[in-house]
Amino acid sequence: MVSRKSVEMWVGVFVAAGLFALGVLAFRVGNLTSADVVNGYHVQASFEDVGSLKVRAPVTVAGVRVGRVASIRFDPETYQAQVVMDIDGRYKSLPTDTGASILTSGLLGEQYIELEPGGADEYLKDGSRIKVTQSAMILEKLVGRLLTAFIDKPPEKKK
Fold first, then answer.
1. For labeling, which of 46, 91, 104, 140 is most exposed (least CB within 10 Å)?
2. Cα angle vertex 127, ends 65, 80, to 5°?
3. 3-state class of 82 per DSSP?
4. Residue 63 in 3-state DSSP?
5. What is the pLDDT of residues 30-71, one digit of tens each?
6. From CA 117, how far away is CA 158, in angstroms rounded?
7. Are 75 and 87 in contact (CB under 8 A)?
């Protein structure tokens, strides 16, 4: 028969392993496992609505992480959210007509910024502003618009 001490020891090992796994998961979900931006430069963009975008959210180009969101603030003059992105220094060849969109990924609905390079001959540099932006899609607003359109113009009945 198994002694009580060995059962308690194995229970302790499994509890410790479970806590370690939860810690790893928390760091993964919180974007704390990947390295910071090296020799980066800051780029700004204005958005009507940032949804649940957070500081340290990824900034990607074609699905490749090229930077992180450095700060998000509200501009009382334009009534828009000002987002500052820290782009890694290895990606200095982003054209000045690059566009920025806030997209959602994953099951948890993590939001990130996707940059879409344009075709200009000049490149973004420290302090540049991205002019073409697309705000986050808010599910509640989309449902509200759909309901409003449905109420204003009911579907036609078939005869």
1. 140
2. 85
3. strand
4. coil
5. 655 455 667 889 999 999 999 889 999 999 999 899 999 999
6. 47
7. no
